[in-house]
Amino acid sequence: MKILHLDSSVLNDNSITRQLTRALVDGLQAQHGSTSVIYHDLASNEIPHLSGEILGAAFTPESDWSELQRSERARSEQLIGEFLGSEILVIGAPMYNFSIPSQLKAWIDRVAVAGRTFKYTETGPVGLAGGKTVYVVSARGGVYSNEQGQAMDFQEDYLKTALGFLGISDVRFIRAEAVNMGDDARSNALSAAKEAITQTTSYATIHSAPC
Length: 211
Hints:
Layout: E1 2-7, H1 16-32, E2 36-41, H2 52-56, H3 67-85, E3 88-94, H4 102-111, E4 118-121, E5 124-127, E6 133-139, H5 147-150, H6 156-165, E7 170-176, H7 183-208
Parallel strand pairs: 1-2, 1-3, 3-6, 6-7
Antiparallel strand pairs: 4-5
Function: Quinone reductase that provides resistance to thiol-specific stress caused by electrophilic quinones.
InterPro entries: Flavodoxin_fold (IPR003680), Flavoprotein-like_sf (IPR029039), FMN-dep_NADH:Q_OxRdtase_AzoR1 (IPR050104), NADH:quinone_OxRdtase_FMN_depd (IPR023048)
Cofactor: FMN
């Protein structure tokens, strides 16, 4: 069992998603037994956003690549390999300005590659990275799960759409919502998220046991 663990909050030890993804990964490791974890702190070790020069490597003979193109192609290949080789993804994704951190978007841009993780066909695009389970640990300062809030949600919906485009249909959200709406709301949100993690890892125990 291989787990790919991504954190993207810029708040370091003050981050809610970091606290929760750590607990989730620990629980999954305990329940699945033999596992390996690849971890990326996308905020502390940012993946450079795509540029014209980086993308230009796809249209330039390798012998003419710049040093930047060589190093970034190697980085992209590593990230794609990690993504395709994992059975479980745990993604810490706080909501920033109704969407995801740009650091997480930079990772998505590196692994969403035609011919590798999806392909175009006569009937439309087809994802090539299926068969995985993705746990998205989502934190929001306000409430976006109600009808009014959903109209401003470009965080969870975007991740579900992007991952679905790559062929991943099993995307599960563990949410801490309203964390900036007072101490009580924050405490309740954290308790609910931690309980969801406990239930998730207990579920994994039941369904991963040999028949």
